Amino acid sequence: MTRTVDLSELARRLDAARRERREVPPLTNELPELPLSDAYAIQEEGLRLRQADGERVVGLKMGLTSEAKRRQMNLDSPVYGVLTDRMRVAAGGVIALGKSIHPKIEPEIAFRTTRELRGKVTRDEVLDACASVFVAMEILDSRYRDFKYFSLPDVVADNSSSSLFVLGEVEHPPRAMDLTKLEMKMSVNGAVAQSARSDAISGDPVVSVIQLCELLAQRGQVLPAGSIVLAGAATVAHMLQPGDRVRLDVEGLGSVEVSAA
Ligand code: OOG
Questions:
Q1: How many whole angstroms separate alpha carbon 115 and alpha carbon 118?
Q2: Are the C-beta atoms of 25 and 142 separated by less than 8 Å?
Q3: DSSP 136-153
Q4: One Pfam family this chain carries (predicted)?
């Protein structure tokens, strides 16, 4: 007998966990064969719930684009999630940890597009479509128990663990520097907690945008003009503690800070 999976119910379950800040078991505990395409359909339904609540899409995030992250999570291919206006924290702002489940922070590089990108695109097409590149950090907060899940469909259904993001205030033209050779340092309370070179991100953060366009095309979607794109973490994530002051410095791009309370 085949069982019909109610994708909307799964989306509502994850959305309630997010809003009520409580952990749920990974979906693949009960649905070990959940296909990745269904997981993206759950993600899309979750987004519709947020839009119905007044949230507006402002961009996309790539995840698992660095070897360090893939090894940390024991997962092997890049995924994407959606960013909304309500997920943005102001540069220098404070993250209220009581509003999260088990948040972690990661160092990122971000792009802003001014032209739509669709399907298979070249590095030059991405650079032409991006008005700027800048520093960013993403705050992840998996809705799964103990921040543990065992497969890509789990993380994809959960909007690729995205929770909040913070963007540097100074934007730079993307052709002004070699984006593969930027030293990145994330400090917590003044001590360097994670560091990497920017080519830790997909070998080149621009490649993350190329991969994002391909993944979107598989869902019949495009990367709209005016999107923020987080290219994926360069290092493993740091578990946030109350009182943490986190700062990311990226050579040539400047810095951004955020605190946890
Ligand atoms: C998955 C999302 C990872 C990144 O930048 O690698 C991610 C996770 O670690 O839960 O966003």
A1: 10
A2: no
A3: EEEEE--SBGGG---SHH
A4: FAA_hydrolase
* C-alpha to C-alpha distance for 8 and 40, rounded to whole angstroms: 12
Relative to beta strand 104-113, strand 228-230 is antiparallel
- Cα of 140 from ligand 1 centre, angstroms: 7
Which atom number of ligand 1 is nearest to the Cα of residue 233? 5
Question: Would the CB of 159 count as within 6 Å of ligand 1?
Answer: no
**CA distances from residue 145 to 170, 194, 256 in whole angstroms, order as listed:** 37, 25, 30
CATH architecture of the domain formed by 7-260:
Alpha-Beta Complex (3.90)
What digits encode the pLDDT tens for the residues 75-87?
Answer: 989 999 999 999 9
Q: Which residues are paired to 196 by β-bridges?
A: 184
DSSP per-residue string spanning 119-130:
SS--HHHHHHHE
* Helix, strand, coil % in the chain, rounded to nearest 5: 35, 30, 35
- Strands in the chain per DSSP E: 57-63, 79-84, 88-89, 94-95, 104-113, 130-140, 162-167, 183-188, 191-197, 228-230, 238-239, 245-250, 254-260
Give the model confidence (pLDDT) of 16-41 as tens digits: 999 999 999 999 999 999 999 999 99
Q: Which atom of ligand 1 is nearest the CA belonging to 61?
A: 11
Which residues lie closer than 8 Å to 131 by C-beta, 6 or more apart? 112, 113, 114, 171, 173
